[in-house]
Design goal:
heterotrimer; A alpha/beta (649); B alpha/beta (249); C mainly alpha (299); A: 649 residues; alpha/beta; Rossmann fold; 2 domains; 6-stranded mixed β-sheet; 4-stranded antiparallel β-sheet; 26 helices; 12 strands; 54% helix; B: 249 residues; 10 helices; 27% strand
């Protein structure tokens, strides 16, 4: 849901481009801004306490309040998939139903007490979500959504068929429900059951929000967002996109399942009537209008729906015309996407803080933290002392490419290319447009499968390895057409670059265990260090999308360095840059080399190449036609002819 | 190469201080040039210099995040704010970079689409079709085949033929040599020379400087979004600066 | 034997009903790469317009014609509300149109509810009899004239649409716009106008469908949703973008449902399940559908 960009600015404080309200760590200036973060959750807790107290005697409002709570849980679940991972599902209502059934049928069947239902609901729905994910995560965009849509339509159809077990469309009674009058605070009034259920649902909502909050600020959450912003860049940085998408599906389904369990408790009934495409559509609208990719957004959206409908006027006008309401909201949703209400609110807060900063009321920027000097250079990993053939690779070739051939259909892009990149050098690969340079990098990094030939990194073959695995082995790259994750902060971009350097479990991340906090600290320190190295530390907390063009290139370099690579492949880093920026880039590349990282530079800019490289290889029509020191290559008649054409007809 | 014409020729295309940004990336930083009626002008430069951006901006192709400032005047009218179909109907034909034929449609359909702006003049369109088939025999042979099955060189001929079908007053050629083997490159440039001899006004953007300078009357050198030099083609061919622009100082 | 004939007749007629709506999806997708989720609603709107006109005394053929004209406008309206606001976007990455077309579909249905009321309508058939022949009977299975008209019309429309897409300048332009919008513009094609025309034609197709379907079943509000869903599945199974695919997809669903009804005692309930399973299988194995061209997977 992109919009056209605005004119680039040269002023120091750059507003985020439209459509880029902060997701991820919220960059608000000033210390007070950090406290601002806790206002929404406090407001929520206060609201819950007040509501329970004020509405204890209103059955109607208690029901609405409960619905608001569990719909918010469902919306939070959908938000993980849609807002954070960027996948649109129109079939999530099926998980709501599944959760209800799991709780209602499985828990008595397994002889477990009723309150365990929520665990079964979560697990059962998550499993179902994984099944759906396996069916569609290899598809992209529209087709993925279509499969979810079909899946979402299939589930109620199955329910209709399995009348005996599942009660058909009219549903079946939940005879195994939690006695919510025992919930603390439910009191002993006439509606203690409903009040108890309200508090129970609210409790689950708070837990959900806690888990989501931690998720978003963890390695997992960042991986999801990286997939959303640019899946290719995520894969190349070491994120196994397929696996993460499946986990995102499962997680989001699980939360929706718990919501369904709570819904079943409320109605004392499970039925598939809540699983129509309309309902799935409703979740999506809640999330989008509330604010995709934010924690508060789905809650706001769900509350708006539930409490909105509770208002008598709304109910009377729209009771029979829900389609009109949802349809219009759908149109509004797209118009406000992806920021939604919360995103727009954030924009105002940020603009407000910018004005305060201008007046000097608060500090312009929170300065970047100090980082230990040894972290301020790229780390060079310990190499395996011995390669597959038994020879020592300690000072040998980082990259060995033999006989590399790539054909697309009948067209040959690369023919039998041999290339050796020596450790600690800057090796340039040049050639006219269409000579196969980008294909070369794509094959080496694993985005294309070669037709023939071998690629060895550090003596070990990379055959059959996906880009993420190659990143783990020590291969990093930047992109000619910039695949920066714009709606994440600069710091987060680099932290994802280090994805393969640390590991932490999903549950640990969501619970924010000491181990996960340690991992976060390591990643954060590492990232700050590299930002200092490339000179972007001042912009660390800003959204990557607000960076100037040349700075985005630096960011990609920092991100690439974060994985402690053996070899950093730069794909036309000078494209689109001005002369002064190119000089700075050259300095940076020299520093990278001096730090011990080998560089493969694919470039058109001759001045950059000639002044910087130790070796230059030249491609033309997919073949290597020359190689050597820069001065030799420059004067080689074959190279001149390749670039400028034949001298005589 | 045609002999030098008197400088009082009507300027069919005039570009002044053109600046183009893609988001925050600067692609063209204030370039100015012109093409007179009947001339063949070429813009040469290494890749990434901004050559294709220039043509795409002149022909009005809209792209994501593109902002344009400056002026472009075609046949006396300002066109920098006009959409591409409007400009095409004014008589400008753009043969795009990388050919971009409609792979799912037949060769003949591609050609007929080229004549879309004159589609109601059935007779004239058919005549033009015959002329194109005469010039490019191989297209006649493959007229009912999907364009996606053609080889690179054949697709280039199709793209040029498609451009000609519009009977344009002004032909834009974007890197016709791209991805073609040397032999095909020579063939394509022969065709371009033929078009030039027929009096077609051409703006040719090309990476292969030598070939381009042989068919052109005048040339400009584009480096990193700025025009760093220009003059008549004959003197440019011997200019060391041109080589520096490609291979560094 | 009766069963087989029953399956044949049922499959063909139900399939044709679905195909008539699927053509609309197909036409829009073929030139814009968008699926118009409001297609089913457009059919219902057209049906109600035809009914209102017929009730005012206009003979059925006149009502038909007027409904088509009105539906052209409805199509344009849908485009203006749902598609235009999205601006210049790439349908393959930006899926906002899913929500907008879906939303417009929901709005349209409720607008009918508000203005005309929710009761089901029945339209008189276009033709009750041909040369005095009202109903044919084969092996005890009745085939009425409206049914026959349905099947024949669907086939004629396939031919007509294919001719449009392959032989006319408009059809060529549609294909160009779908394949490469930027280059289509270079040809002098006003791509935004083409999109609008496509939606108008989709509206007209919806009207044709409504009038042909109406005698068989009541035009009621959730007809759009049910039929729209089935037609969407048919279009995807057959291959979005292929007219042949739309009718083949329609027949696949028609025959599957007929077969399942005949062999199971539960009849109605298993039908949708089998259809959805087939749908999912096709999507997972060959997302482009039977006649669709596989999309190039971008790296």
């Amino acid at each position: 849901m992109a919009r056209a960009g605005t004119e680039p600015r040269d002023t120091e404080e750059v507003e985020p481009l439209p459509g880029q309200a902060g997701q991820g760590v919220l960059p608000i200036y000033g210390r007070r801004g950090d406290l601002l973060r806790f206002v929404p959750i406090l407001a929520l807790v206060l609201f819950i306490v007040w509501f329970g107290h004020a509405q204890a005697d209103s059955r109607k409002w208690l029901d609405i309040g409960t619905e608001a709570m569990y719909l918010a849980i469902a919306a939070a679940g959908v938000n993980i998939l849609l807002g954070y991972t960027g996948l649109l599902s129109l079939g999530h209502a099926a998980f709501f139903v599944a959760g209800g059934y799991a709780g209602a049928i499985l828990s008595p069947a397994l002889g477990l007490p009723p309150w365990t239902g929520f665990v079964l609901a979560f697990v059962g729905s998550a499993a179902l979500g994984a099944v759906l994910a396996l069916m569609c995560c290899h598809l992209h965009g529209f087709y993925l959504t279509v499969v979810t849509f079909g899946f979402g339509a299939l589930v109620p159809a199955i329910v209709v068929v399995a009348k005996d077990q599942l009660g058909g469309p009219a549903g079946r009674a939940v005879d195994h429900f939690v006695d919510t009058s025992k919930v603390p605070g439910a009191g002993s009034g006439p509606f203690s059951l409903q009040l108890g259920l309200f508090y129970l649902s609210a409790f689950f909502l708070l837990i959900t929000l806690f888990l989501c909050w931690n998720l978003v600020r963890s390695r997992w959450g960042r991986a999801y967002m990286a997939i959303r912003e640019s899946e290719v860049a995520a894969r190349v940085s070491g994120v196994n996109a397929y696996r993460y998408k499946v986990s995102s599906f499962a997680l989001s389904a699980g939360f929706v399942g718990v919501a369904g369990w709570l819904g079943a408790q409320r109605f004392v009934l499970v039925s598939s009537q809540v699983a129509t495409p309309d309902q799935s559509f409703r979740y999506v609208i809640m999330v989008v209008v509330g604010g995709m990719g934010t924690i508060a957004g789905p809650v706001l959206g769900a509350f708006g729906f539930s409490f909105g409908f509770g208002i008598a006027w709304v109910q009377n006008t729209f009771r029979d015309y829900q389609g009109l309401l949802y349809g219009t909201l759908g149109l509004i949703a797209v118009a406000s996407a992806p920021e939604g209400t919360v995103g727009n609110l954030r924009r105002y807060v940020r603009a407000y803080n910018v004005r305060r900063a201008k007046r000097g009321a608060i500090a312009r920027r929170v300065p970047p933290p100090d980082v230990a000097p040894e972290l301020q250079r790229p780390a060079v990993r310990e190499r395996a002392a011995v390669d597959e053939d038994g020879a020592s690779e300690a000072n040998g070739d980082v990259l060995r490419v033999t006989g590399l051939t790539k054909r697309f259909g009948g067209v040959g892009a690369l023919s039998d290319v041999d290339l050796v990149v020596k450790r600690g050098t800057v090796h340039a690969l040049i050639g006219p447009n269409g000579s196969g340079k980008t294909t070369f990098i794509n094959v080496v990094t694993g985005l294309y499968k070669p037709t023939a030939g071998r690629v060895e990194l550090d003596g070990r073959s990379l055959e059959g390895l996906a880009p993420a695995a190659r990143s783990r082995r020590g291969l990093a790259r930047t992109f000619q057409n910039l695949q920066v994750w714009r709606r994440m902060t600069v710091l987060e971009n680099v932290m994802v670059g280090a994805h393969t350097r640390e590991r932490v479990g999903l549950l640990q991340s969501m619970l924010r265990t000491p181990k996960s906090r340690r991992v976060e600290r390591h990643l954060r320190d590492r990232a700050w260090g590299l930002l200092h190295f490339v000179g972007l530390a001042e912009r660390g907390r800003d959204l990557a999308g607000t960076l100037a063009f040349a700075d985005m290139r630096r960011l990609e370099v920092a991100r690439g360095l974060a994985s402690d690579p053996e070899l950093l492949c730069l794909d036309e880093p000078a494209a689109g840059m001005q002369i002064s920026e190119i000089h700075e880039l050259a300095d940076l590349i020299r520093q990278v080399r001096d730090a011990g990282v080998t560089v493969l530079l694919v470039e058109h800019h001759m001045d950059l190449v000639m002044g910087l490289s130790d070796t230059v290889s030249v491609l033309d029509y997919g073949q290597k036609i020359a190689e050597g020191a820069p001065a030799e290559v420059r004067n080689d008649p074959r190279v001149v002819a390749a670039y400028l054409g034949e001298e005589s007809a | 190469m045609k002999p030098m014409t008197n400088g009082k020729q009507e300027k069919l295309l005039k570009v002044e201080d053109l600046r183009v940004f893609y988001g925050a990336a600067r692609a063209l930083d204030g370039i100015s040039f012109h093409v007179a009626q009947g001339e063949v002008v070429t813009i040469i430069g290494s890749n990434g210099a901004g050559k294709s951006t220039t043509l795409k901006t002149v022909s009005g192709i809209s792209e994501l995040l593109k902002t344009v400032s400056g002026s472009i005047t075609f046949a006396g009218e300002r066109i920098e704010k006009k959409s591409s179909h409007h400009i095409a109907r004014m008589g400008m034909a753009h043969v795009p970079e990388g050919r971009r034929v409609f792979a799912g449609s037949t060769v003949e359909d591609n050609l007929l689409l080229g004549a879309y702006r004159r589609r109601r003049m059935r007779g004239a369109v058919n005549d033009e079709l015959e002329r194109v088939y005469e010039r490019f025999r191989v297209l006649r042979e493959r007229r009912s085949q999907p364009a996606g099955y053609l080889s690179g060189g054949e697709q280039q001929m199709l793209a040029i033929g498609r451009g000609l079908m519009a009977s344009p007053r002004f032909l834009l050629l974007d890197e016709p040599s791209l991805g073609l083997a040397p032999l095909l490159v020579s063939q394509v440039f022969e065709i371009i020379a033929g078009l030039a001899a027929d009096g077609t006004t051409i703006l040719l953007v090309e990476q292969l400087a030598h070939q381009a300078l042989r068919v052109a009357d005048r040339a400009y050198v584009l480096e990193a979004g700025v025009i760093s030099g220009g003059g008549d083609a004959a003197s440019m061919a011997a200019d060391a600066h041109v080589r520096e622009a490609y291979l560094g100082a | 034997m009766t069963d087989i004939v029953q399956i044949l007749v049922s499959g063909l007629t139900v399939g044709s009903v679905i195909a008539l709506v699927a053509f609309g999806y197909n036409l829009v997708f073929a030139s814009t790469r968008i699926v118009n989720f409001a297609q089913g609603s457009m059919l219902v709107v057209a049906g109600y317009i035809a009914f209102a006109v017929a009730r005012a005394g206009v003979p059925i053929w006149g009502a038909f014609a007027l409904s088509i004209v009105a539906s052209l406008a409805v199509g344009v309206l849908v485009e203006i509300v749902a598609i235009k606001p999205l601006g210049r976007f790439d349908p393959s990455t930006n899926v906002g149109w899913i929500l907008t077309t879906f939303g417009v579909g929901l709005i349209a249905i409720d607008l009918i509810k508000k203005t005309v009321g929710a009761e089901a309508r029945r339209l008189p058939p276009l033709a009750d009899s041909i040369f005095g022949w009202k109903v044919a009977k084969i092996s005890g299975v009745a085939i009425t004239v409206p049914d026959a008209l349905l099947v024949v019309s669907a086939l004629l429309i396939v031919v007509g649409l294919e001719l449009l897409q392959t032989r006319t300048n408009l059809g060529r332009a549609f294909r160009a716009v779908a394949e490469d919008r930027q280059i289509a513009g270079l040809m002098g094609i006003n791509t935004e106008l083409m999109v609008m025309i496509t939606f108008a034609l989709a509206g007209a197709l919806a009207a044709i469908g409504a009038v042909l379907i109406a005698p068989r079943q009541f035009v009621k509000l959730d007809l759009g949703v049910n039929l729209g869903l089935q037609a969407f599945i048919a279009a995807v199974i057959g291959g979005l973008g292929s007219t042949r695919g739309a009718i083949v997809g329609g027949y696949v669903i028609g025959f599957t449902t007929a077969i399942v009804s005949t062999i199971t005692s539960e009849g109605g309930s298993w039908g949708p399940v089998v259809v959805f399973v087939v749908f999912l299988m096709v999507l997972v194995v060959r997302p482009a559908g039977i006649f669709g061209s596989p999309a190039v997977e971008k790296v």
